Each structure stands twice: as C-alpha cells, then as structure tokens.
Amino acid sequence: MSDPRVIAPNLKRRLSGVTATIARLVPLQVQWIDIAATGLGLPSDIPHIPLGRLPFLSRKPLRVWHARRNTEMLLGLILRNVFRLRLKLLFTSASQRAHTGYTKWLIDRMDAVVATSRKTARYLERDAQVIMHGINLQDFTPPKEKAAVRQRLGLPDGLLLGCYGRIRHQKGTDAFVDTMIDLCGRFDDVHGIIMGRATEKHAVFLAELKDKVTKEGLSDRILFKPEVTVDQIAEWYQVLDLFIAPQRWEGFGLTPLEAMACGVPVVATDVGAFSEIVTDPSLGRVVKPGDIPALANAAAEMLSDRDSLARSGTAARAHVERNFDINGEAKTLVALYERLLSDA
Predict the structure, then answer these.
(1) What is the tens place of the pLDDT at every residue in 51-102?
(2) Which CATH superfamily hosts domain 146-323?
(3) Domain 6-134+325-342 bears CATH identifier 3.40.50.2000
(4) pTM of the predicted model, to two decimals?
(5) Can you tell me the distance from the alpha carbon of 266 to that of 312, in angstroms, rounded to the nearest whole number?
(6) 39 contacts 67 by C-beta, under 8 angstroms
(7) Is 49 strand, coil or helix?
(8) DSSP secondary-structure letter at 169?
C-alpha cells in the first residue's frame, strides 16, 4: 500500500503480543479503511509500507499513527514534529503497572488512548477508550469429535488440562506443574499438557520443572510438548477439558479466550484481563495469582462434576461469540480511526 490513511508500526523484530495483534487486525481492518503496517518481523501477507518511505509521504492528507509501544509513540512524534507529516497519534496500552515519567510524557502527547481492559485503564492518568482484544471464531472453534483429535495427536483418554504459552516464572508454568501434581493425587484419570517455548534464558527453569515431574513419577501424566505453529494451536485447545491460565503477571492474555472459543472452560489467575473475560462461575474460576492451593481447588471443583464441566465449555463458547469476536475489535478501532480523521 503506497499511501495508507492509517499506519500501524511494529518496531520489534522478535515475535510478541503486539506483533501478533497487528498481524491479526490489519488484514481485517483493510476491508473498511486504508491501513498498512510498517516495521520489523511482520508477516509478508499483510498490507505493508516500508519504514524508509515514511518521511517521504505526502504532507497533505491527515493520517492516524497507531502506536502500541514507547518507541512507536516517539517515532510518531518525530514524524509529526520533525518531518511535518499530518498525523493523529493513537496509543494502545495493555500495561497494568505505574508508568514511568517518560512513558507518561509520551502518552500525554497522544491525540487518543485505548486501553485493552478496564484494569489497564485505571493505570492511565487520562481518559482512554476500553477496547478489549477479540478472537478469530473461525480458527478457534469447538471440535466436531474431540476423541478423534486426541487419537490423531496421540493423547490419552480421561480428563486433559492444558497450560500453553511462554515457559517462564512470570507465566506461572511452575504453578501449573504444582497444581497438576496435586490434581493427579486426587483424580486417577487426569493428565496435563504444557506447551510453549522456553528461551535460552529460561531453559534451566524448564529443565527443573521436567525433573520435578520425573521425581514425582508423573512423566506419563504431565506431558511437555514442543511449541506448535499458529495454524496448529487450535486443535491443542480442542482436546482439553479445562484450561489453566496461572500467570503471575500479564498485559492482556489471549490464551483463555482461545480456549473458551474452542469450548473449554478456564481457571485463571486475576491478572491481565482474565477477570474481565471469565466473568461468571458458569465459565470457570478466577483465583489470586501465585495461590497454588486455590488453583488446584478451583480446578478440582470443576473436574468433580463432569456434566457441569461440559456445560461450562458450551457456555464459554457462547460467551466469546457474544463478546470477543475479533471482527468487533477491528470495527471498533476503525470507527475510532475515522473519528480521528474527521477531526481535522
């Protein structure tokens, strides 16, 4: 795209939640507005404008610059104040911590701010529109035959619990392992799946978890699986009976939504947007982060009534359909872009 009206920058080469958000939203939003991504590490199949072209864009049209990081807010200010592009600067915040003075300075210079949850909005010292993330309901959907998917993936019968995502202390992978050790002592037919990537920095952490499971004699019941590609992850949710999101800190956190879209109820810690996603006991449970007995007891309560567990999965899917369709997120952002563009 040679001259988009909206530009979504991604100034980080390594895959991150921001990169994934841009990759999910821009291909949808381009149906309704001229939008392009720019920057590093982006999929080749989404509308894109090279970073090097930005200073040479026409100064006549008004555009929206949608930043999601400090570096991107700063570049937007440079493009507007130094290169004299006509830009409306928009920032989306997912952070749930007090902002530094530098970040506050950048945010104060934005024309509009979006928060990805009500909890996030409370950390912003200015008005923000809450627009929560959505999920692709065509990619993430309940299985037609769960047993057949399990068989194809070589997974055991019985109750399957999962914990997916980056393997590190912040994500609570160790809390999931401890929870599963507890649950394996209470239920004979419970198995757990841990799936994700541990960077070199966290390799020792992963090795210690595997060693702990081995010493407990549970290597055949608590399974460590390698990370799969984006197009394969949905089927790993589809095989589950319950998803555990044990994070100690999170910005937003998409994994509970991905599980619920696949008809899987959730036990989550009260971080990120989890308490704004799992809003009713019919959908799952929310417990204090780092409280392993609470995680285990909440999961055990749900697992003890298999009929209720199945009903919770059905309710979870319906809840996501009503409230977290990614098309709703995309259209709400487009409406905000159009308001900014009309406010010349």
Answers:
(1) 999 999 999 999 999 999 999 999 999 999 999 999 999 999 998 888 999 9
(2) Glycogen Phosphorylase B; (3.40.50.2000)
(3) yes
(4) 0.91
(5) 9
(6) no
(7) coil
(8) T
